[in-house]
Amino acid sequence: MDVSAHFLYFSGIRKGLSVMKKPQLLWVPYREVRHDQPDDCLHYEQIAVRAAEMDWTIPAHRHEGLHQFQFIESGGIRGSIDGREFQAQSPVMLMLAPGAVHGFTYTRDAVGHQVTLPASTLSQLLGESELVQTHLKSSFVISPEDDSVGIAEMFARISREFQRSDVGRVPALLALVALIAVRFIRERGEQFEREAPKGLRDTLLQRYLTLVEQHYAEHRPLTFYSEALRVSADHLSRTCRNLVQKSALEILQERLMLEARRLLAYTPMPIAQVAGQLGYEDAAYFSKSFGRAMGHTPSEYRALVAHGVRRVDAAAP
To answer: CB under 8 Å to 264, separation ≥6 — which residues?
Structure first.
């Protein structure tokens, strides 16, 4: 299995029941939720708000510094996250990690909820623990095994609180979204343990992938990772090859190139700025590395995407 699946794990989706009635729609743009000092602590809206305005199709985009939790309680959804396509029927739990490029088409009868909040706020809510980095660093789409009614009610409580102005509104909203985040973590963990290939459940590999996510743009040597994990570089690379048929360095390079493709395809950043954001001191060296890995220069890749070529390699966004 391609190790990139670790960064975007899709579990089996099964058909479920719809139980909630649509509350009144509320229109608030995403920009209302700011990264550092939000006007509100989070943003809630019904799926139908934005979907109906855009003919039920949300074009590909990304949220920097924001986590988003969606729950589809009736209807269906299809789309892609970082180039990996999926299709699912309710009930569906969907978590979008910061920076993930995503676009969706909902069925016209879709009923559901979404909550968006700064990743820094979520980290504080969960006690600065490793829950966010370990369990919410990569997007996933799953179907709850049971109690979809309870999950819908959690979102409905957020909806009711969001539209009120009572004393204690912000602490109440934060407490509710913390419970939602924990519920998503538990559901994803249970399904991952049951359905993920054995290799992706390996503790050393998981710890390495977590470190890669934190440091890939720092261009650290492999010894930095192996020393942090208290194993030799050879043992780390051998473990990766045995489990996912890629060396530790290949995994690291793939993560770096994924972010490069995201920035080139979905931002107007000049190539030199993309290189700098990815930790390259020399833009020419970045272009050479990207061309060697992807078979196209950054300019060629951007032009292909602009002309509607969705995939110029097996893993393109």
So the answer is: 271, 274, 298, 301, 302, 305
